[in-house]
């Protein structure tokens, strides 16, 4: 008895989420089969699984997946590579920062969907437009975070570096970049959600393939289970990206102490 | 700022004009523009001071007297607006590596281990990191952190962090060590131990130290000479050579001679504090 209690106490991070998820799925299934909600509009866990099994056997689906994944991966990677130096360099030079700031905040405040017609016009319909949409979504949070991270670098650390005669390059490498890392990582986290959103928006609007298009078509033909399956699949892509990012985080932030703030 | 200032309470000013001093400040003046209202404020005016090689000299004075500013001038972080500061007979702006600062806060980079932090000064001189780390090791040992060289700063106590701060300055092997209230953030017991440690290290390492503090007992315990500065604008009002034996155990603090020095300096500062207090209309009067 005591051991059972202890097991539950120790593994609360495991069984609590699993149980809550299971209860949710059970209630959903129950509501559908009992007819409380119409299965035609709400589907059911079993229905989604069945649709999923059928879908993954279809080559066209995997074509959609690879298109969406490549849009996401290319847009995300280019955004990271461009946004970090952009944000850091703009903030390093005070006057450049003043010049860049309105664009940074202005573009961040602009709803991306409103720009989509322009993006399609300039980049070309389909893959290019969607990839650019992803790029913009990922670029903004990373660039903004990098920019303001540089601005708030601890002056004391810079005093130390100056005192010991560090060159500009060494100051960048030993003080500024390490200070910026956690902010950039936070931006990269936000960027995953924005990037996946970019895939869906871009494909809804301008594409005839990809997961967004898959969901769009399923919606137009009232295949609720396929909509839900498609959405879940996109979530999975985002989760994979999160896990990859967490590995990076653990590597570069290994020096950081654990936060102890209640349990 | 009015140019005429009161020199009645000037005791001794030992400016050795023979040029044998390691550090020589002549008529140093520091004006700066106050951000709040754009007014020109004089922080230091007519400061003369000379420090001989191997001396341990402390500067005490009421808060806002410019003692930290003076230290920053000597360090080269800011430039005096008037007068001259010579290190080994050369203007301070021209010499870079001869001094090292122990900062008030530890200011260790949290992303580097202790050894990398201590080696940072050498790294900045383009010494390869592996060699810099090797050369830092004796100093890590000297300050008693040998067991912690692989640790990160957050794993150290405040006193240990200040030891690392000190080791980082020692590692560049400076001729002049500048210390800016390095123990002010430590608790009373740790502070006493660190003072004793500093003397032990200084006796082993034998270099020149310029130490800024607001604690009179600390200045008397550590120093060969205590410089008392006036309230703003800061200048030297007394230069007291301490006749206390070395090496000094902590027990020195309880001898009558020590306490006489403390009283003497306190009376000098008290007058400055009162002047300061009246000038500022009763605002801040602390040390």
Task: Set out the fold topology.
The complex is a heterodimer of chains A (263) and B (287).
Chain A: H1 2-10, H2 12-33, H3 39-42, H4 45-56, H5 59-92, H6 94-109, H7 112-123, H8 127-151, H9 155-163, H10 168-206, H11 211-220, H12 224-252
Helix pairs in contact in A: 4-12, 5-6, 5-8, 5-10, 5-11, 6-8, 7-8, 8-10, 9-10, 10-11, 10-12, 11-12
Chain B: E1 23-33, E2 40-51, E3 56-60, H1 67-75, E4 82-87, E5 90-91, E6 99-102, H2 114-118, H3 120-124, H4 129-142, H5 158-171, E7 176-180, H6 188-205, E8 208-212, H7 216-222, E9 225-229, E10 236-241, H8 256-279
Parallel strand pairs in B: 3-8, 3-9, 6-7, 7-8
Antiparallel strand pairs in B: 1-2, 1-4, 4-5, 9-10
Give your account of this protein's structure:
The complex is a heterodimer of chains A (263) and B (287). Chain A has 263 residues and is mainly α. Chain A is 84% helix and 0% strand. Chain A starts with a helix and ends in an 11-residue tail after the last helix. Chain B is α/β, with parallel strands linked by helices. Chain B contains eight helices and ten strands. Chain B has a six-stranded mixed beta sheet with strand order 6-7-8-3-9-10, with helices on both faces. In chain B, β7, α6 and β8 form a beta-alpha-beta unit.
Give a quick rundown of the structure.
The complex is a heterodimer of chains A (263) and B (287). Chain A is mainly alpha-helical and 263 residues long.
Oligomer: heterodimer
> Strand-and-helix sequence of chain B, N→C?
EEEHEEEHHHHEHEHEEH
Instruction: Work out the strand percent of chain B.
Output: 15-25%
Report the end-to-end length of chain B measured between terminal Cα atoms: 23 Å
Strand order of the largest sheet of chain B: 6-7-8-3-9-10
In N-to-C order, the SSE pattern of chain A is HHHHHHHHHHHH
Helical segment tally of chain A? 12
Of all protein chain pairs, which has the greatest interface, and how many residues does each chain bring to it? A-B, 18 and 22 residues
Largest sheet descriptor of chain A? none
Cα-atom Rg of chain A, whole angstroms? 23 Å
Instruction: Assign an overall shape of chain A.
Output: flat
If you average the pLDDT of chain B, what whole number results? 86
What is the overall shape of chain B?
globular
Helix percent band of chain B: 25-40%
pLDDT below 50 for ≥5 consecutive residues: which ranges of chain B? 1-17
* Mean pLDDT across all amino acids of chain A: 92
């Amino acid at each position: 008895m005591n051991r059972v209690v202890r097991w539950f106490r120790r593994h609360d991070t495991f069984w609590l989420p699993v149980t809550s998820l299971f209860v949710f799925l059970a209630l959903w299934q129950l509501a559908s089969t009992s007819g409380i909600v119409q299965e035609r509009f709400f589907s059911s866990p079993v229905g989604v699984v069945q649709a999923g099994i059928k879908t993954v056997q279809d080559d066209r689906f995997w074509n959609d997946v690879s298109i969406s994944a490549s849009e996401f991966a290319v847009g995300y990677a280019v955004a990271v590579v461009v946004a970090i130096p952009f944000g850091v360099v703009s903030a390093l030079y005070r006057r450049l920062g003043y010049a860049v700031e309105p664009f940074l905040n202005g573009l961040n405040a602009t709803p991306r969907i409103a720009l989509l017609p322009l993006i399609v016009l300039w980049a070309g319909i389909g893959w290019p437009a969607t990839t650019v949409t992803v790029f913009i979504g990922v670029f903004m949070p990373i660039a903004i975070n990098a920019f303001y991270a540089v601005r708030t670098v601890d002056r004391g650390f810079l005093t130390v570096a100056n005192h010991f005669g560090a060159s500009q390059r060494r100051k960048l490498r030993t003080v500024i970049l390490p200070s910026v890392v956690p902010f950039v990582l936070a931006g990269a986290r936000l960027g995953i959600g924005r990037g996946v959103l970019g895939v869906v928006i871009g494909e809804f609007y301008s594409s005839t393939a990809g997961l967004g298009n898959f969901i769009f078509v399923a919606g137009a033909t009232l295949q609720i289970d396929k909509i839900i399956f498609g959405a879940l699949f996109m979530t999975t892509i985002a989760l994979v990206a999160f896990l990859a990012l967490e590995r990076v985080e653990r590597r570069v932030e290994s020096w950081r102490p654990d936060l102890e703030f209640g349990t | 700022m009015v140019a005429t200032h009161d020199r009645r309470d000037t005791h001794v000013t030992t400016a050795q004009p023979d040029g044998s001093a390691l550090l020589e400040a002549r008529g140093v003046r520091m004006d700066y523009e106050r951000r709040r209202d754009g007014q020109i404020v004089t922080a230091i005016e007519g400061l003369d001071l000379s420090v001989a090689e191997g001396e341990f000299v402390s500067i005490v004075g009421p808060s806002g007297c410019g003692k930290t500013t003076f230290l920053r001038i000597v360090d080269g972080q800011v430039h005096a607006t008037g007068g001259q500061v010579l290190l080994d007979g050369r203007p301070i702006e021209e010499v870079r590596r001869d001094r090292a600062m122990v900062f008030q806060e530890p200011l260790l980079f949290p992303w580097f281990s202790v050894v990398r932090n201590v080696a940072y000064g050498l790294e900045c001189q383009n010494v390869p990191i592996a060699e810099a780390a090797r050369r830092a090791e004796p100093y890590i040992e000297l300050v008693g952190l040998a067991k912690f060289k692989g640790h990160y700063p957050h794993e150290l106590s405040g006193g240990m962090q200040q030891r690392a701060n000190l080791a980082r300055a020692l590692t560049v092997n400076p001729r002049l060590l500048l210390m800016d209230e390095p123990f002010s953030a430590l608790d009373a017991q740790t502070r006493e131990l660190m003072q004793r440690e500093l003397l032990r290290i200084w006796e082993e390492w034998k270099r020149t130290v310029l130490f800024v503090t607001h604690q009179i007992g600390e200045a008397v315990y550590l120093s060969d000479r205590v410089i008392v500065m006036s309230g703003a604008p800061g200048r030297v009002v007394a230069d007291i050579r301490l006749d206390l034996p070395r090496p000094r155990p902590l027990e020195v603090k309880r001898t009558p001679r020590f306490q006489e020095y403390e009283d003497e300096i306190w009376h000098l500062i008290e007058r400055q504090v009162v002047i300061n207090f009246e000038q500022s209309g009763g605002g801040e009067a602390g040390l």
